[in-house]
Amino acid sequence: MLGRLARAPAAAAAARRSFCAGAAIQPFHIAVPVHNLALAKDFYGGVLGCSEGRSSVHWQDYNLYGHQLVCHYVSDDYRCVDYINPVDNMEVPVPHSGIVLTEPQFLELADRIKRSGTKFIIEPQKRFVGAPGEQWTMFFKDPSGNNLEFKAMAHPDNLFVKYNVPEG
């Protein structure tokens, strides 16, 4: 039986790609540590406009553009540790997470973030202009220092296109 399930390396790799590149996009779940649930609620519910779902005294669920974001209280002392990766002549904070939006959603969110007084790590801007990966992008932190990136692809079909990005 095991012999019948074994595949040649190329076939196995193709099967993995096929599995990861499913046609229907399902909501993802991400959990982030926070140092204060009230501040998390103000930020994710108020500034970002996410609706709150289930919650307890230790965690809160949010609907982040159709995806499940869970803020878990971990410690009053928690702050995300930053590492930097140079990308397109910018210092991109790592780790980070976020959502790929449409351009109108991106511009509306960028305006909302600006009005809230949240400090940008990388101001809303276009990068990789003229390249297959051309995109609007912005980076900022939540109150616990978790890095967030929101982006909008100039050509949404190019989100997963393979190309080599020149170092600048």
TrEMBL record:
This is VOC domain-containing protein. PANTHER family: PTHR39434, VOC DOMAIN-CONTAINING PROTEIN. It comes from Phaeomonas parva. Residues 26-153 form the VOC domain. CDD domains: VOC_like. Pfam families: Glyoxalase. It comes from the Eukaryota.
